[in-house]
Amino acid sequence: MIRVFVVDDEAPARDELKYLLEQMPDVSVVGMARNGREALELIPLAKPQVVFLDIQMPDLSGLAVARELLALMDEGDFPLLVFATAFDRHALEAFEVHALDYILKPFSAERLKNAMDHLRRTLAGRSPAQGPEAEKLDRILSLLEKPPRPKLAVEENERIILLNVDEIVYAWVEDRHVFVKTKDASYQTGYSLSELEERLGLLQTHKSYVVNRDQVREVIPWFNGTYNLVMADREKSQVPVSRTYVKSVRQALRL
């Protein structure tokens, strides 16, 4: 029997995964944990061969749990890890390269079957004393702990261009359309200013402007306690700071 342990902070997800796994005649679910701390207590005692480990948990992420388990468990007892993840395909490819696996929520019986087939083959070729390849696991964890840098889709001549966050100097609203400015060009985008603020971490300075705080080069005091921000684009554009946003801008720029 393949001894399996399930870690997920959501009870329905734990129960669903346990149910699907127990439909397989050669699988035994030997334990479940509701969070990362509980997982670190129970997994070394249960000594499962496989751990299904949720990445996003409120106390400790699945990635942090994996790192702690590397330090806690002997090499020969270290389980194979299957991450439940919402990471994009680029990051998921790294699991395949390093002989780990992943499943996406909501769980699919077919995907779970494929994952278990992969695990059976891996376990069959693993000697009793053989533990994880620690360097490989460390590399994959390091990769996944770096969140993917968001990109912004903009339009130019009926083409879609993807901009990195650090290319964007500021964005503004004009005639109900939102535009973003890089150092050398301007583009229209389908996002609202509030979406740019949330998605890219831009700073709102005015009802019609958000800026990349790393692209602010100069702060000019203006009328009635307001400011203009001189930006790092080629034109050295000046972006207004209205009275509504003076306090938050001062805090963000540490003025």
Automatic annotation (TrEMBL):
The keyword Cytoplasm does not apply. This is Stage 0 sporulation protein A homolog. Residues 3-120 form the Response regulatory domain. May play the central regulatory role in sporulation. It may be an element of the effector pathway responsible for the activation of sporulation genes in response to nutritional stress. Spo0A may act in concert with spo0H (a sigma factor) to control the expression of some genes that are critical to the sporulation process. Residues 152-255 form the HTH LytTR-type domain. The keyword Transmembrane does not apply. The modification 4-aspartylphosphate is found at residue 54. PANTHER family: STAGE 0 SPORULATION PROTEIN A HOMOLOG (PTHR37299:SF1), TRANSCRIPTIONAL REGULATOR-RELATED (PTHR37299). Keywords: Phosphoprotein. One of its GO terms (molecular function) is DNA binding.
